Amino acid sequence: MNNKIEIIEERLSAEEFTDFLKRTDLGSQYPKERFAERISKLVNNATISLAARNEEGLIVGVLFGLTDYAYWLYVTDLGVDRAYEGQGIGRQLMKTAHDKAGGEKDIAVYLIANKRDNSIL
Q: Which terminus, N or C, of the chain has the lesser number of Cβ atoms within 10 Å?
């Protein structure tokens, strides 16, 4: 991973996440119905919320997950800015989330890839 990328545990605003979605393929999974309301709930309720930021502070990767901190981590959202793909950012986001949830000795990770045609972005 580019060492000028920093992964931070932080709560994103719905606006900042929506802007990020426009630079990724992740946005294609979200239905149009009540988009703003639902994205706001997503960013406010994820148990684990990670952002990868470049040296200018721009979000270049995001991971949201739900965990019980005992047995499992369900990764609900994982995306990387198209301009930053192939640099290991997604892999580092996954490792960081796994570690925060409790580590590979205790935590099973579940990730489901989703591609929808009714994209809002």
A: C
